[in-house]
Design goal:
eight-stranded antiparallel β-sheet, 367 residues, single chain, alpha+beta, 11 helices, four-stranded antiparallel β-sheet
Length: 367
């Protein structure tokens, strides 16, 4: 067990936004909420999965919807705890052992910190994705047959409800409809789990990994190339492209940020091009019309100079970026994982090929 202070939260927010592959919400907004919570309530305790008991009980907390909406629809602040407590009451649980993030992302890694700080609960060093995905059934708990419901959902106005569904795909469909009516973003508590389920089905050490990634990116004593090499070693990653954004086609539809960006090569990729397709998160990367990265593997955009993560809602013409790819957690590379979050699920007519196989066909940078 250790305590998360302000410096740790700064680093986690950066690292989680990187692992969020463009989704998971604005890291600046998430960081402000978490820093405010620990300033008022004190540091949050972080436990490793090895320190919890099988009979312990946990409830995650998260935001669902289109991340770009947060820019104008800022959370009120108390809805995270309200939705968490609503589900605990519905389940008849007087004692909740702790909470954890459902995914890595700038906001969704911070919301559980807010809940933990406000309720005096510990945070567990795991999540349900090892990255971010746009739909509720796209979690490792679903892959192991764990139900997303009972689930609580709320908005900043005070509307709150409970869902019980026949399967996790129906959870996504019904909750997405409610989220659209709530203004394209909502707060949720779902996948209530025991300690035994967290140990078996969670992606362990994701908060610690986020913190390490954030430490590298935030470092002031190394230049961009030195930091990049260190980052690639840590995440077993590849630099897929160096480019300038020359076009962004984007819309908010059905509670998602949907679109495509076109990049024109710079420096090491001069006279080349790349397209990145996204649905909240980056899904497919095509270099010179050849696929070099695909979901469920991670496709991450970072600022060319600072290496700070670039989320899909912050894409803009002229921004210079690096595109980094890294392998997904092994749970996503199973038959059910690929069926749940592979390219065909999102409508792309590709058979999943691991990124380490794809990059053999093109020249990319790897350490």
């Amino acid at each position: 067990m250790r305590y998360l202070d302000k410096v740790a939260i700064e680093h986690i927010a950066i690292g989680a936004a990187f692992l969020g592959t463009g989704g998971g919400g604005d890291p600046y907004i998430g960081k402000l909420m978490a820093l405010s919570a620990i300033e008022k309530n004190g540091p949050v305790r972080l436990y490793s999965v090895d320190e919890i008991e099988d009979e312990d009980f946990f409830i995650p907390a998260a935001m669902m919807g289109a991340p770009s909406v947060l820019i104008e629809k800022f959370p009120r602040g108390d809805e995270f705890v309200k939705v968490f407590q609503k589900l605990a009451k519905y389940l008849g649980k007087e004692k909740i052992t702790g909470t954890y993030p459902m995914e890595a992302g700038g906001v969704n890694s911070m919301i559980p910190i807010v809940v933990a700080a406000q309720l005096g609960l510990p945070l567990i060093d795991c999540d349900g994705m090892g990255r971010a995905f746009p739909e509720l059934q796209m979690v490792t708990f679903h892959l192991d047959g764990i139900s997303a419901t009972p689930m609580a959902i709320s908005d900043e106005k005070g509307n709150i409800g409970i869902f019980e569904t026949i399967d996790n795909k129906w959870t996504e469909r019904i909750a997405r409809s409610a989220t659209v009516e709530m203004g394209a973003s909502a707060l949720v508590s779902l996948y209530p789990t025991t300690g035994a389920q967290v140990k078996k089905s969670g992606v362990h050490h994701i908060i610690t990994l986020s913190e390490k990634v954030g430490e590298i990116i935030a470092s002031k004593d190394k230049d961009a190339n030195e930091k990049l090499q260190e980052l690639l070693r840590l995440v077993s990653g590849y630099e897929l492209f160096q480019g300038k954004i020359v076009d962004v086609i984007r819309e908010t539809k059905g509670g998602f940020n949907l679109g495509k960006m076109n990049l024109e090569g710079i420096e090491g990729n001069k006279d080349e091009n790349m397209k990145v397709h996204f649905q909240n998160e980056n899904l497919i990367a095509e270099k010179n019309d050849q696929v070099v990265g695909m979901t469920p593997d991670l496709i991450c955009l970072v600022d060319y100079e600072t290496l700070l993560p670039v989320t899909t809602e912050s894409l803009k013409y002229g921004k210079r970026v690096r595109v980094i790819g890294l392998p997904a957690h092994e749970k996503w590379r199973t038959e059910k994982g690929i069926e749940t979050a592979g390219p065909k699920y999102f409508g792309y007519d590709y058979e999943y090929v691991p990124i380490e196989e794809l990059v053999k066909k093109v020249v990319v940078k790897h350490v």
